[in-house]
């Protein structure tokens, strides 16, 4: 596999640009994952960790240690991470890996890491095994950052990877005894700085057990199991689970946000998908959700919470699938109509997943490169007037109902055509003309008999056509990927979420997340307020998604701000804006009594959905 | 009209017809006050200057005043100083501005622009003690079922779209208001206007151009597919390249009845309007129309020749049962949907007033040469994209 050679300065820029979305920790492209990462499990041994390590070394934040050299040497330059990272961010990490190797060779290391003399580390290691705890800066620094523009760097003293609930309980007792603060970590993708801490980071990456209990439609999982891994296993057995971002640990997702997913329309959020879960309390006590004596984790309170429990396993609901599932996209010019339509579907319980997606979101997901994403967004929103697309996932009965609603729509086949032919979209004069003549009923041209066939003729869709702007040495691999159906299958994409992290490709994104009534007026007010604040501070912004929950009575709403997390000026502007955003949410929450801010959901993610939405 | 004391207040000067009229008026030395609107951040002055330059008209100093206006405002959006200035100078009004969109979804905007805004403009004309108020309407104020269309007010008609409806409504309001206020008026009713028959030039490309552009877009879809992807899909749709390089593109167009399309070139429109401005008859309607409308077959031939395609067939009467259009036909059908009422037109326009007022100025025929000139210009300008 080929690598691009870059200067030390370019390598540093790239390393600092690592989005830390942990996509290199899951095998989402079928390349396999970085072998040293799979073996050692510490973030430092994954491509993401090496990027962060190189940035810290090159900027002189930490010295070169023996561990740093070992981490650098552990990279075989196999190139897998190029495929993975380029897919998401357009970056080629192997260039940084080469720079890292050069850097450690050029800097002599002390014989022994100072951390080895730390008696507490020895005690920690006695619990988890010597391989699974470390205090070397080469390791700890890779747990010290989060691209969140509100998060400051915090280098922990220790990083520890327990293997069992017993080990977790022993660790908590030890930390309590020594007054060491601890923070649990799944894959660190919360992007709000929640997994940072000064004391010990308890990385759950070794706890990856998945046990299916098909009789009871459940899977019991460890806290290291990611959404992608669980969904893959579930699908292999003919089921589906309601999970979110592919690289996120399912349990961490539940703890943080209760799981925000398009699938939540049908399957709910928070405790709705959790049949049971086991915890270790701060005091080292073990209990499960289903214990009569257990703390009431089903409750929800509108206040900031602190971390009191470590979740060591969860029993997650399995949902049935049918063999006739597909997705459709229904385009809209305005938010009001899109909300009304999504609500209509949700109230009638049509489909198992619904989401209103902004043009930025859709164009990022379907475009293999950032340049394409920019053109596609321009085409979608300006030329075609498709500001919002409502995606509905369902079986053939659900999709027939959607069709019966009479709206022009993009079905699965047409979506594949548009996606694989997207390079020809920008210059498609015929589409512009159709938009001009369809003012009476916007997008009615989608109803033209044989439109799909026409679009295929005009756009010449193919993986090769789609990928012609991709780095030449990666093209054939991606072409094979896109030749399969998954990368353009709306159901698969929403279940596995392997393209969603492309939203942060141009620059990192900050999601503003609230639960509120699915009402166009209120949503419109918030959209305008968030947009105005962003515009005032010169921040790129757009609507992310809106998903109906609980029969369309409420929805989850994400609005995104985009901030270069390596640019201090943008961070400073963002911090002021974030304060204003918070004030707006609090204002409308107080005024309406119906708005719930994600901020308060952290550590309360296993609450009852109804407690969150209505109490 | 070139009398040094006369000044024409003109609206719609940034549009197709208005821009050509404005340029002709400038070229013959008339003084103008242009009332219009900016385009986004582009000021009206810049738009007007650019249009005049593109049409080769160079105004003398102070020949063209430009004022940004808002006709929905009773004072036309002018401040007191601007309003008084217009009243002091204006002697004639030429009201060309119009919402020319057909879509029902724009009904409110169409009514506002085409009808409601008249009040403030006519009031400005009254306060200016204007010698004449010339209103540019359309020949299509008559319903599609009227075969004989006199140069007289329209009593009642079934209109094809909100554009026709509001233009007819505006005619009635202009006549009523001007009569009530004692302002002499004319109503100018052009049919469908295309580019300059001598040079091909035009500043906007709608109507006739839309059909040619649509066909050209369909042709390009298939040419590209044939050249770059081997033409398998084209063949499936019955489309292929003939040995002589002509694209065989079978398009069956079903129209309810045989009719024709009444087309005039912009140079004729301009010349006729200038003649009416010079010798207007009070409270008179003029049909600026062609004496020899073209048939759909003729237009189809012109298109085929211009686009190097073959296979367009016009059928009259309902489409046969079970008619399944190929994707190209379905696409073309969608393209022409808003314009369908104009493709089987049976309206005949009387021209008695026009013939008197524009003696010696006859509407030229739309020959293939003229057609080609105009379409080549439009294609060269990328259809105004
Ligand atoms: C590109 C992108 C898209 C995203 N899209 C979505 C989305 O659609 N829906 C959604 O819900 N989220 C989304 N997220 C957010 C993120 O995936 C979730 O917040 C998830 O929690 C992160 O999982 P993680 O394993 O990375 O957790 P971490 O970031 O490691 O931890 C998150 C929080 O959970 C706590 N925690 C972790 N494990 C445990 C445990 N076992 N016991 C107790 N507490 C624990 C941590 O202390 C921390 O406070 C997205 C993030 C990215 C980067
Ligand atoms: N073109 C034809 O074939 C044809 C045939 C018959 C009759 N007509 C008539 O001829 C006249 C001109 O037509 P056209 O083809 O030149 O139309 P056009 O190109 O669409 O131009 C319309 C003009 O009206 C102006 N306008 C529209 N809405 C306005 C508003 N709300 N406020 C101020 N100005 C506004 C436009 O200004 P902006 O540039 O700022 O948009 C433009 O200058 C119209 O009255 C039309 O009914 C035209
Ligand atoms: S190139 Fe190095 S860091 Fe990247 S996947 Fe291969 S071994 Fe891991």
TrEMBL record, chain A:
Protein known as: FAD-dependent oxidoreductase
GO molecular function, one term: FAD binding
Superkingdom as given in the UniProt entry: Bacteria
Classification via InterPro entries: FAD-bd_PCMH (IPR016166), FAD-bd_PCMH-like_sf (IPR036318), FAD-bd_PCMH_sub2 (IPR016169), FAD-linked_OxidoTrans_Type4 (IPR051914), Oxid_FAD_bind_N (IPR006094)
Organism: Geomesophilobacter sediminis
All residue ranges annotated as the FAD-binding PCMH-type domain in the record: 151-321
Classification via PANTHER family: GLYCOLATE OXIDASE SUBUNIT GLCD (PTHR42934)
PROSITE patterns: FAD_PCMH
TrEMBL record, chain B:
Limits of the Thioester reductase (TE) domain: 11-214
A biological process term (GO) from this entry: long-chain fatty-acyl-CoA metabolic process
Endpoints of the signal sequence: none
Alphabetical list of Pfam families matching this protein: NAD_binding_4
GO MF annotations in UniProt: alcohol-forming very long-chain fatty acyl-CoA reductase activity
This protein's name: SDR family oxidoreductase
Organism: Geomesophilobacter sediminis
């Amino acid at each position: 596999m080929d690598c691009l050679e870059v200067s030390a300065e370019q390598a540093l820029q790239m390393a600092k640009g690592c989005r830390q979305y942990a996509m290199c920790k899951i095998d989402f492209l079928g390349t396999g994952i970085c072998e040293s990462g799979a073996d050692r499990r510490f973030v430092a041994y994954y491509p993401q960790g090496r990027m962060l390590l190189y940035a810290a070394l090159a900027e002189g934040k930490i010295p070169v240690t023996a561990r740093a050299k070992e981490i650098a040497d552990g990279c075989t330059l196999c190139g897998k991470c190029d495929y993975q990272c380029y897919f998401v961010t357009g970056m080629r990490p192997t260039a940084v890996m080469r720079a890292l190797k050069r850097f450690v060779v050029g800097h002599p290391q002390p014989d022994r890491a100072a951390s080895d003399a730390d008696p507490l580390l020895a005690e920690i290691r006695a619990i988890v095994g010597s391989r699974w705890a470390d205090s070397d800066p080469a390791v700890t620094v890779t747990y010290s950052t989060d691209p969140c523009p509100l998060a400051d760097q915090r280098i922990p003293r220790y990083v520890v990877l327990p293997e069992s609930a017993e080990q977790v309980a022993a660790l908590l007792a030890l930390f309590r005894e020594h007054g060491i603060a601890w923070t649990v970590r799944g894959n660190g993708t919360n992007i709000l700085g929640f997994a940072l801490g000064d004391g010990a980071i308890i990385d759950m990456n070794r706890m990856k057990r998945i046990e299916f209990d098909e009789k009871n439609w459940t899977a019991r999982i460890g806290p290291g199991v990611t959404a992608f891994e669980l969904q893959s296993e579930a699908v292999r057995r003919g089921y589906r689970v309601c999970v979110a971002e592919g690289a996120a640990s399912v349990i961490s997702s539940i703890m943080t946000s209760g799981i925000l997913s398009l699938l939540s329309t049908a399957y709910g959020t928070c405790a709705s998908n959790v049949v049971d879960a086991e915890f270790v309390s701060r005091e080292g006590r073990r209990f499960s959700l289903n214990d009569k004596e257990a703390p009431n984790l089903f409750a929800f309170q509108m206040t900031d919470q602190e971390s009191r429990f470590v979740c060591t396993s969860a029993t997650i609901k399995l949902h049935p699938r049918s063999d006739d599932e597909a997705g459709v996209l229904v385009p809209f010019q305005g938010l009001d109509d899109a909300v009304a339509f999504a609500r209509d579907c949700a109230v009638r319980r049509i489909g198992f997943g619904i989401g209103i997606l902004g043009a930025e979101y859709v164009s990022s997901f379907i475009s293999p490169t950032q340049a394409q994403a920019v053109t596609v967004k321009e085409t979608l929103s300006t030329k075609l007037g498709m500001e919002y697309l409502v995606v509905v996932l369902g079986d053939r009965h659900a999709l027939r109902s959607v069709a019966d609603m009479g709206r022009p729509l993009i079905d699965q086949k047409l979506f594949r055509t548009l996606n694989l032919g997207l390079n020809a979209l920008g210059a498609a004069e015929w589409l512009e003309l159709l938009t001009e003549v369809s003012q009476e009923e916007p997008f009615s041209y989608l109803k033209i008999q044989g439109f799909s066939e026409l679009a295929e003729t005009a756009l010449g869709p193919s993986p090769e056509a789609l990928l012609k702007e991709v780095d030449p040495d990666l093209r054939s691999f991606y072409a094979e990927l896109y030749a399969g159906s998954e990368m353009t299958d709306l159901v698969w994409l929403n279940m596995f979420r392997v393209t969603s992290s492309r939203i942060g490709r141009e620059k990192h994104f900050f999601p503003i997340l609230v639960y509120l009534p699915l009402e166009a007026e209120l949503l419109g007010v918030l959209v305008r307020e968030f947009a105005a604040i962003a515009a005032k501070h010169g921040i790129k912004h757009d609507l992310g998604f809106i998903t109906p929950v609980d029969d369309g009575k409420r929805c989850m709403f994400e609005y995104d701000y985009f901030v270069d997390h390596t640019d201090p000026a943008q961070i400073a502007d963002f911090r002021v804006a974030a304060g204003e955003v918070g004030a707006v949410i609090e204002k409308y929450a107080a005024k309406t009594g119906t708005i719930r801010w994600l901020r308060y959901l952290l550590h309360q993610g296993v609450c009852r959905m109804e407690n969150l939405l209505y109490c | 009209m070139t009398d040094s004391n006369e000044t024409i207040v003109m609206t719609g000067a940034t549009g197709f017809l208005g821009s050509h009229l404005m340029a002709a008026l400038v070229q013959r030395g008339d003084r103008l006050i242009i009332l219009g609107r900016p385009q986004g951040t582009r000021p009206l002055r810049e738009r007007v200057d650019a249009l005049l330059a593109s049409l080769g008209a160079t105004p003398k100093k102070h020949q063209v005043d430009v004022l940004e206006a808002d006709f929905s405002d009773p004072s036309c959006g002018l401040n007191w100083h601007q309003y008084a200035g217009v009243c002091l100078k204006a002697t004639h009004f030429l009201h060309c501005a119009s919402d020319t969109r057909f879509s029902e979804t724009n009904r409110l905007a169409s009514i506002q622009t085409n009808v409601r805004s008249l009040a403030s403009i006519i009031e400005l004309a009254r306060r200016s003690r204007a010698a004449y108020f010339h209103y540019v309407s359309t020949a299509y104020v008559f319903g599609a079922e009227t075969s004989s269309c006199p140069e007289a007010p329209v009593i009642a008609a079934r209109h094809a779209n909100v554009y026709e409806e509001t233009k007819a409504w505006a005619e009635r309001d202009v006549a009523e208001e001007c009569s009530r206020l004692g302002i002499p008026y004319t109503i100018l009713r052009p049919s469908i206007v295309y580019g300059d028959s001598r040079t091909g030039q035009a500043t906007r490309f709608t109507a006739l151009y839309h059909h040619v552009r649509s066909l050209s877009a369909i042709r390009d879809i298939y040419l590209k597919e044939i050249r770059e992807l081997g033409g398998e899909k084209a063949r499936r749709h019955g489309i292929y390249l003939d040995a002589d390089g002509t694209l065989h593109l079978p398009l069956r167009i079903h129209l309810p009845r045989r009719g024709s399309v009444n087309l005039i070139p912009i140079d004729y429109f301009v010349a006729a309007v200038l003649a009416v401005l010079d010798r207007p008859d009070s409270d008179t309607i003029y049909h600026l129309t062609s004496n020899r409308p073209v048939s759909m077959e003729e237009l189809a031939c012109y298109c085929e020749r211009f686009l190097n395609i073959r296979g367009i067939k016009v059928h009259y009467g309902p489409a046969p049962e079970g008619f399944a259009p190929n994707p190209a036909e379905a696409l073309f059908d969608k393209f022409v949907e808003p314009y369908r009422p104009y493709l089987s037109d049976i309206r005949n326009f009387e021209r008695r007033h026009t013939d008197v007022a524009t003696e010696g100025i006859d509407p030229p025929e739309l020959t293939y040469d003229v057609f080609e000139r105009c379409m080549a210009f439009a294609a060269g300008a990328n259809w105004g994209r």
